[in-house]
Amino acid sequence: MSDASSLPERSVIVHRHLTDAGVDTEIRVLPDSARTAVEAASAIGCEVAAIANSLVFLADGAPVLVMTSGGHRADLVVLARNIGAAEIVMAPASVVRSATGQVIGGVAPVGHPAALRTFVDEDLQRFDVIWAAAGHPHTVMPLTFDELRRITDGQVIAVV
């Protein structure tokens, strides 16, 4: 696990959550922003599809977290059907910030003020290591699919 003292404040919270969950991984601070899956994959040196995008949607008005593969865009019709929502829309930045305590482009799968109902893209299962933001646009962390599912208590679904 990385030295938490050198991490941005929001990443320290993520680090604490991971430690409490028994996940031993290193949060990496990147010199440049990793706000998009393409930027993150380029900085890390992995496939774009191995990036676990943390997307916040409003499902029937309630925020939910969807961890999608950077290899595709979530289909809102498929997503709504698979999570049992009548309506699903992208959450505005203000809702993302209030629900997660983090900014778009740096939203981690954990470390939020309160647990969010979470869904994990089944396509991420094909990677031995997936990469997720760690609470700040310049921080990332490697996880296994099982670790991601466990720490988020996420339900595995198709998003496309």
Walkthrough of the structure:
- With 160 residues, this protein is α/β, with parallel strands linked by helices.
- It has helices spanning 9-20, 37-44, 76-83, 93-100, 145-152; strands at residues 28-29, 51-59, 62-69, 88-90, 117-121, 130-133, 139-143, 155-157.
- Strands 1, 2, 3, 4, 5, 6, 7 and 8 form an eight-stranded mixed β-sheet that branches.
- The termini are far apart.
- The model has no long low-confidence stretch (mean pLDDT 94).
Shape: globular
Multimeric organization:
single chain
Order of helices and strands: HEHEEHEHEEEHE
Tally of alpha and pi helices: 5
Query: What is the number of E strands?
Result: 8
Structural class from helices and strands?
alpha/beta
In helices, the fraction of residues equals 25-40%
Measured between the Cα atoms of the first and last residue, the distance is 34 Å
Cα Rg: 14 Å
Low-confidence stretches: none
Q: Sheet with the most strands?
A: 8 strands, mixed
List keywords for this structure.
160 residues; alpha/beta; eight-stranded mixed sheet; 5 helices; 8 strands; 28% helix; globular
